[in-house]
Design brief:
Layout: H1 15-18, E1 26-27, E2 42-43, H2 54-65, H3 92-98, E3 110-113, E4 119-127, E5 130-140, E6 145-151, H4 152-165, E7 174-175, H5 176-185, H6 191-196, H7 198-201, E8 208-210
Antiparallel strand pairs: 1-2, 3-7, 3-8, 4-5, 5-6
């Protein structure tokens, strides 16, 4: 097994590189960035000395890879540094595994979109003599094209929502409760069922995230 701690780097085309002010950092200089410049110099206004944690992180990770040091207090890895007390309970992973896997609706969860807007195509679907309109949305990413098929009404609603969830367009984060209210205002029904079924659950691959 192998592992590595990588200190944060601001890259040109990442969300934080495109809109650093939304993440609480600043570019060191307002200059044009070439396409291949993947490490943009930035300033962390919090004043944190990130380099001071490097040795402790590497040392603790090396011990972890060898299966030792699990009972060692956190602060002992960082000589001379003030380390906050651990906020994660010792049984956190065990508790997660024991929890019911049924999705839980969390109204205050935030919904963000960090991808590109899709192309939309309307087509007709038939089954047992019934015909209805569907919409196929195609999301183009750097690695793949992800297609999602929804009813025409669901697709039209989603297209209106994506810009509101986008971190590049909207400055206000949208809650899951607000998404639900918008869905129902569109005269659509069973939001929880819609949100957790396969078409929507695959959208994390194109940048729809629930935080």
């Amino acid at each position: 097994q192998s592992a590595f701690w990588h200190q944060f780097a601001m890259t040109t085309h990442s969300p934080v590189g495109l809109a650093p002010e939304k993440f609480g950092v600043h570019k060191a200089a307002d200059v044009a960035i070439a396409f291949a410049d993947n490490d943009v110099q930035h300033i962390d206004p919090s004043g944190a000395d990130h380099d001071s944690f490097g040795y402790g992180l590497k040392k603790s990770l090396l011990n972890y890879m060898h299966g030792i040091g699990f009972d060692q207090p956190l602060h002992t890895w960082f000589d001379g540094l003030k380390v906050p007390k651990t906020t994660v309970t010792p049984t956190y992973i065990q508790d997660c595994l024991l929890n019911d896997a049924v999705p839980v609706f969390k109204p205050n969860a935030k919904v963000v979109f960090i991808g590109n807007m899709p192309t939309a195509t309307i087509f007709t679907k038939s089954k047992k003599g019934n015909t209805w309109e569907m919409m196929e949305l195609q999301f183009h990413t750097m690695r793949e094209v992800v297609s999602v098929q929804l009813t025409k009404e669901e697709g039209e609603w989603l297209i209106t929502q994506l810009p509101q969830w986008s971190i590049y367009v909207s400055e206000q984060l949208t809650t899951l409760q607000q998404v639900k209210e918008s869905y129902e205002a569109f005269r659509l029904h069973d939001f929880e069922l819609f949100w957790d079924k396969k078409p929507m659950s695959t959208l994390h691959r194109v940048g729809v995230l629930r935080l």
